[in-house]
Amino acid sequence: MTSGAWGNSIPGVGTFFVGIDVAPGRYRCLDGKGGWWVRFTGPGGGDPVGSWPLPAGPAEIEIAPTDFAFETHVGGQWERLAPARSPDGGAPLRPVADPTLREELDVVVMRRRPLVWLAPLTVLGVGLAGSVFLGTLWLLGMAMMATLIALGTPSVSLDLQRARELDRRRDRYLVPEDLDDPARDLLGRVQAAIDTVRDSAVNREGMLDTVDNAVTLPRQEWEIAQVLARQSKLRGEQEEAGATGIPEVAAALEPLRAKLEISVQAVTRRVEALERYAERTRAADEALRAHRHLEVLAARAHEYDELLADTVRDDLALPAIERLTAQSDALAQTLRTRLTEAAEAGDELPPAT
Predict the structure, then answer these.
(1) Per DSSP, what are the bridge partners of residue 16?
(2) Which pTM was predicted?
């Protein structure tokens, strides 16, 4: 199974775990002619849904947060048009994985790749050996079988191997069902803030150069999700124990509830720090858009100057051009200030462990 880029695109060929390799959402491939895709839906991907062959021209696919994996075989790559949306219009929660898990699984798969490719070579060897006694038709048949195995067996076998390895590492990723309602609310805020930063123009263009978002944000999300999962488990145990109605049990639960509340407050502060970072990034994005528009106007200012020079005295054009230049300088300063504020907000995030 090929590792995907956790971002806004998916390579055209490979199988990718949703929420670990790729983000759910709506994707488009500019030309999927002759290709195909499969969404592995349901628990563990037991209900596959696919399309083959794809017609010429653009192809679109909606990868749901509840999908297990997405398999694709097209000539180009898939570009994400929009994040996934839940029926109520909000962004649904996605699974959260240890950022090092994907690379670890890839290493395991790569170790098995040479062994998997021995299968078609073995069949071809049998064909060569048997051709001495059974003739050319036998060799031709075995060569065709080796070709079919080479086209299908390696990818299927490696996909199954990667799925098995993922199942063995169940403690390295979390799904929304692992959390209770309060924890889901906080994780939703975390993912909304991360998406805001990740999808911002200033991030895509590398303007937040003091913060390595590609490394920092997944690590922050994973560490917060781990804490939320433990809090959910403890809250469930407390509710179960409190339901007994035994006074001694209720008394024993009081200090435990207090400690849990302190933990909730601490992780909430961490979530709020992410939200401040996202808000500063959004403000920097707004300043960048305004600055780009003003740059376009400034680049065409000479046309207005020439127009005024042709109709009225030249000195009437100068104040308008000077005002435009001053506005451009002021907005550029605003952009620099907001980028600095966004970087400072990113530095406020707790260090990832």
Answers:
(1) 70
(2) 0.66
